[in-house]
AIG1-type G domain-containing protein (Onychostoma macrolepis), 423 residues
Amino acid sequence: MSEICYSSDDPGIRILLIGRYGSGQSSSGNTILGEKRFKVKKHETEICEGKTQIGEKRVHVINSPDLLDPDLSEEKLEELKGQLVSRCSAGLSAVLLTVPLEQHVQNEEEILDYIKGLLGPEVQKYMMVLFTRGDELEDLDEPQTIEEYLQSKDHADLQRLVTECGGKFHCFSNKKHVEGQVERLLQKIEEMMMKNRGRFTMEQMKRSGSNRDPPVNLCFTSQQHNNHNFRPISEVVSTHKEELNTALKSLLEKRQHKENIKGEFEKTLQHINSQAEHTERQIKQQFEKLHQFLRDEEEATITALREEEEQKKQIMKEKLEEMNRHISALSHTIKDTEEMMKASDVCFLKEFPVSMERVQISSQPDPQTPSGALIHVPRYLGNLPFRVWKKMQDIVQNNDRGTDCTLLSSKTSPRSVLDRRTI
Ligand SMILES: Nc1nc2c(ncn2[C@@H]2O[C@H](COP(=O)(O)OP(=O)(O)O)[C@@H](O)[C@H]2O)c(=O)[nH]1
Ligand SMILES: [Mg+2]
């Protein structure tokens, strides 16, 4: 079997599109071909192909269905695998894995592994990530280039896919015409082919063992194996061991990667525990401060009430004493006047002017009940919940500003908590 090389005589570019259903495979195929060759949004279960001429280059696109589609029966999958190997037998310039941006990576790594298992590990050198939905990068709050988007730590899963494909990627906007996006892709594919010294060939595919029957056991006389090459067992074994070793290395790396992620998860679990404990302690402290604030506020309000009660009771006691003095004076005057009435005429006449004067002096005006004698109840009860809430709000705001006007400071001096102006 002759190797298919990339040369100026043969400018054909053969592209295999792979990806999960809905990732933009058909749309990307259409963008490359410049026409609606593949049905978009169709749950495709057949391999489709399209060809076009772009400048000097003949471009051939093979659009494969989602090979990990759980709806595919085993027989259908076997049939598709056979067809795919046969369609790729003319060589491949690139295997493009379509990955939509702004969506979570799903089973893309498995798809890559599946294709490597089918076509052989050497196909990895021809793999490239083709991001779709590039137009959505422009719709972000701050538009980004694909390189900037990939650098974000949130997109480590996308970076991993790019690394799996040897760092090769391109980005398409299938919903929007972007000048030169296809030409730039073809240029990247040509550079990749140059680096790989040509296309991925049937020879490489056979080396991988994807050609089912192990050549070492083949019957030389079998018609089925006419034209096949045969190699010594030791050579085949050593090639296969090399391949298996590469696959093993990749498995070890994957396991290490998953162990690292597991470690991160365990750390997160511990962190959640200590976070919850710490937060519960703080909640209790904060509520204790609030309870203390309310207790202090109640104490200060009652203290103010007691003070007013004492003050007002004192005033009324003084008024009562004054009244007692008035009544006692009047009693004396009454008694003396009654005595006078019983006295002899000469005595009566003699004492009459003095007695009359005493009677007139005794009819002084009554002392009045002082204004504001009673306790000003609304001062304590009016809007009580609102006032307390407002004060609490001020303190909370002060705490927020970092001026730790701590509620506990009111403990030592309840008076300082009760703003006299509000009473
Ligand atoms: N905005 C946007 N939508 C895309 C792009 N590529 C594909 N789509 C949409 O993604 C959906 C799936 O596309 P399709 O090509 O059928 O994916 P497939 O199942 O992988 O072949 C369709 O609704 C497409 O219109 C893109 O670059 N930008
Ligand atoms: Mg499709």
About this structure: Residues 25-26, 38, 42, 44 surround magnesium ion (ligand 2) (CB under 6 Å).
